Amino acid sequence: MTKSVYLISLGCPKNLVDSEVMLGLLEKAGYLATQDAEHADVLLINTCGFIQPAVEEAIDEILLLSQIKEKNPAAKLVVTGCLVQRYKEQLLTELPEVDLFTGVDGFKDIVNLLSEIGPKPSSLHIPPSSFLMNASMPRKISTPPHRAYLKISEGCSNKCSYCLIPSIRGPLRSRTTDDLVAEATALERNGVRELTLVGQDVTAYGIDLGGENTNLTTLLSALLKDCRIDWVRLLYLYPNRITDDLLSLMACEERLLPYLDIPLQHISSRILKGMNRPFNSRQVHEIIERIHARIAKPAIRTTFIVGFPGETDSDVEEIADFLKTYRLNNVGIFTYSNEEGCAAENFPDQCPEKIKQQRHDYLMEIQSAISLEKNRECIGQTIPVLMEGVSRESDLLLEGRSQFQAAEIDGCVYITDGYGQAGDIVMVRINEAHPYDLVGEITG
Q: DSSP per residue over 347-407, as a string?
């Protein structure tokens, strides 16, 4: 009898790729993916454990699945991913209702691990963080079929003082260019029109492989040469690794979208030093100026962390001035989370939560006005939009995304008139603007 699996994937797109590989492996082994959790044979959750809010979300989801398991005791409850890698044995004690815990590299062994689940107590499987997926692994895409993620590397060798990723995911491990081209061409054959390259730091691609001819720019050149995917997007570019060669390729290749997601995290040189970021305020300004000098209309997205230990009102004003000066397309503001095990955990002058939230709200108010102004500049323009289908807001609207809107991160384009199917790239005349979304109608 065919067994069924119900899967929840939490966290970032990189985690989603791991989940898709697990689904692919399970389907190959005869399991059937289902949306019916109450009757599933396996309840599987791939967790994030990067910061405390993600930990809390994961625990909440596990507890919800455990309630389902109470009604169906024969079901196996399995927890994988970053939360397990971070807390290990502690979870065994606190969540005895879980049958199996496995860490971030356990996804590749999911079929064997399920077959080995026996009677209580729960089991824990933590392989070393050294695995690297490849194009030969089965993968069941869970995004709409016209878009997919391509995970070009695993792990991270940066040493930011607020971040647990290197200790959870291990050091940087880059896939080979040939392997990535093979996966990209397979995704193209399956109808993918937008390919988003992801990694903890995509600009670090190839550093571990050695050789001057293996880097992000050479990888992109190979992908563009061998694949005809319409849109290629990059997420998570480390600021001081954005090369002139990369910007030149972006400027001349229409399919490589001029969308740069650059997590700056701060502008104050003093705070950047505390964060162990290898650049200062002056270099950040130079990077943004260099992007604008080489690309006609770049769409720049960034994130900032407020409330880092020792941060002052003056440091926050530096971010505010930066936002007003460069008027970036999309900005995320996050409050600092003092995570156990990070270098910054015991830094002096920890910021009260109330002040963190005040600084967050202050900067978001500034950016909201800027985002609205930037979107209003689009009114009257006709721009290409990748259709997503019927809007989640109303079945009377269609929904799509422009080249400067990344899926699940930025806003969207609501379409009030015209017809297009999910996966179509259509021309849309913009008639209305909001802080994060646009409204328009299909032309022609």
A: -SSPPPHHHHHHHHHHHHHHHHHHHHHHHHTTTT-EEEEEEEEE-SS-TTSEEEEETT--T
Distance in angstroms (rounded) separating the CA atoms of residues 43 and 149? 24
Q: What topology does CATH give the domain 4-125?
A: Rossmann fold (3.40.50)
Instruction: Assess contact for 237 and 261: CB atoms under 8 A.
Output: yes
> Which residue type does 323 have?
L
Q: Which amino acid is at 160?
A: C
Q: How many CB atoms lie within 10 A of CB 342?
A: 17
- The secondary structure of 51-75 as a DSSP string is SHHHHHHHHHHHHHHHHHHHH-TTS
- Label residue 118 by pLDDT band (50, 70, 90): confident
Residues of the chain with CATH 3.40.50.12160: 4-125
The alpha carbons of the chain give a radius of gyration, in whole angstroms, of 22
Which of 114-123, 218-227, 358-367 is least confident?
A: 114-123
Rounded to whole angstroms, how far apart are CA atoms 230 and 403? 11
Split at pLDDT 50, 70, 90, the class of 395 is: confident
CATH second-level architecture of 382-442?
Answer: Beta Barrel (2.40)
DSSP 8-class letter at 413: E
Q: Does domain 147-376 have CATH number 3.80.30.20?
A: yes
The residue behind tokens 């806003």 is 411
CA-to-CA distance for 154 and 14, rounded, in angstroms? 9
Query: Which runs of consecutive H residues, i.e. helices, occur in 171-326?
Result: 177-189, 216-226, 244-252, 269-274, 281-294, 313-326
| Structure token digits, residue 417 | 């008139």
403-406 own/partner pairs: CB under 8 Å, 24+ apart: 403/231, 403/257, 403/258, 403/259, 403/299, 404/257, 404/258, 404/259, 404/299, 404/329, 404/330, 406/196, 406/233, 406/235, 406/259, 406/261, 406/301
pLDDT > 80? residue 61: yes
First to last CA, the chain: 52
pLDDT of residue 69: 95
Where in the chain do CATH 2.40.50.140 domains reside? 382-442
Positions of CATH 3.80.30.20 in the chain = 147-376
Alpha-carbon gap, residue 191 to 143, rounded angstroms: 12
* pLDDT over 90 (residue 50): no
What residue has token string 């080249």? Answer: 403
